[in-house]
Every structure is written in C-alpha cells, then in structure tokens.
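Please describe our next protein:
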Amino acid sequence: MPTDFTLDDTSRLAETLRQAVDGRVTPGGVIVCGTRDGERHVITAGTIGEEASGAPATEHTLYDIASLTKVVSTWPLAGQQLDAGLLKLDAPVRDFLPVFSGEAPSGQATIRQLLSHTSGLRAATRLDHYRGAEAPLHELLCREPLEDEPGTHRYINRGYILLGLAIAHMAGLPLEALADDLWGQIGMTSTCYGPVARRPDVAPTEQRIPGAPRIWGSVHDENAALLGGIAGHAGVFATPFDLARYAEQLLAAYSDGQSELGGWLRASLIGQVTIEPGVQRGLAWILADDSRLAYHHGWTGTSLYLAPHDGRYVVICTNAVYYGYGRGRLAPLRDLALKTLSAA
C-alpha cells in the first residue's frame, strides 16, 4: 500500500500556496496530493482572476498546463507508437515524417534525443520566422543547422514540436484526435487542446499589452498559438482533477508492471543525461532522488510530480503568469512539493 500524506505535509503545502497567493505570485491555485489507490487531498487558495468574476480556484478549474503537454500528451503517445513499432527510439525523426529531399541536419536527431532534450537543435523557437514559407513546417525544422553537439542537454521546445508532427504522421490522424482518445481511455473528461471558451471555470493567463484583453481560453505559448493551439510542446488545458487521475493511472500501471504504459514509464525513468548534480533527464521527465522521483513543470505555473516506487504524486495548478513576473516566484512551492515526496 502506498503511504498517505500526513497532516503536516498538507498543512505545509497549504500554507506555502496561501503565501504565494498573498504575495501576488498567482491569483490562486490548486494542489492535489494523492496515491495510486485513489486517496486524494485537495488544497485550494485564491481565485482564478478578475476576468472570471473572482471565481475560486477549484479542482475542476481548467488551466493552460503549458509544457506539461509534453508529459500528458506527447510522451504517452510516443510510448504507444514505440510499443506498436511505429517509432524507434534510436532512429532519426526524419524517418517518421513526410518524405522530402536534401540535407536535414536537425532531421537526424533521434526520437530518444528529442524526448530527452539532447538533440542539439536550436533552443530558441521562433516559428513566426517561417510565416509565408512555402515548405511544410517539418521540412523547415529538419533543415535547420544544429546549435549544440548531439548529447548536450538543453531544454528545447522545437524537438517536441517535431515529435508531435511525427506522431500524427505515423498514425495518420491529427495529434488532438490521438490525445483525445488517450485521455478518454483514462477518464480525463475535461482535458483537451485549446482553444476553449472564456468561461468562469477557465483560468486566464497573461496580459501582454496594457489595456489589451488578457489571454483567456487561448494557449499562452506563442509558438503553439501559431500552430492553432495544437502542438507537441504546449497547448493542452486540464483540470487538477484530471491530472490527478492521470497520475493515479501512471502509478497504478507502474506498480502493475504488466501494462504498456507501466513499461514505458519504467523505461523513461532511466537517466539519459545529467542536468546538474543529483538531477537527470529521463525520457521527457526530470529525475531526482536516484530516479525515484519524476517531475515536469509548465511555464504558466503548473507542475506534476510522481514517486512511482511509493505510489504517490503531487499536482500543482496555478496561473502564475497572470501577473507576468510571478511564475519564477513559485520556486518555494515547487521545492516543497519535491521535498514532500522525497521525505517518504
């Protein structure tokens, strides 16, 4: 049986979330602490913003989860296709995209390198530079020169954009259709790619220009927005409730040891490259505590933490980019979540 969270655990997390709200790091937020057996502790504080008439943040608030898209959509879909033989970890991504001729330095990056951010691709993703281009996006990205030696760790969104394009091409279906089917099987009934309606249960994000409407219901990531809100690196909206269900499913699959999803999670918890002392990058996930902990963050103020061996998880959902500068000040809350799982 997984170990449940103590009253001290939840009290510390609740106080740190409240301090973040009081300090205008975020207008509000939700934390769900739980186990693979369905035990859940839901912690809430604050609102989702003035645009939503001060509606309180709840486990059913829909958040733009930003780069959690990588582990909630692209990573599990890649695992499905690897298991089906549609993708191969150590083959170049070019092999899984529509055929084109000529040199393609970035197209030689392998699926493993793209998943682990060790491809050497350009780190600064500016898809607006390709406005009006005649060639398709996958060809434009593959033709780009490398920026680093393959094997060098550097967080790169364009690698997951390529993964999303490859996954859709190999399946012969749009990325959002594949993701919808996956989420439906898990029971994540509110999770979707945007855009979504501007509703009181949808958390707004950033106001980029004073006096202009705040981003609300549309994806915050500019490159995902240029792709219609659907991309391998960003674009997904989810509730804390659904993310908790996803975490429970992953942990149960890991414990079972027989399912495809569990096997993919185990494979992904093998460190591929060191980020800093004590922290490695697996396949998509950041690994800590000798790979006993896996986690990922989203730019908007979201995080998902897993302790597969202990059967526990922590979900954090905020819209900290609401204040523009506030996202970076979530570090105390994120560090506490990691420490809480490590303490077990």
User: Anything to note?
Assistant: The chain has two domains: 7-72+176-343, 86-173. The first strand starts at residue 28 and ends at 35. The first helix runs from residue 7 to 22.
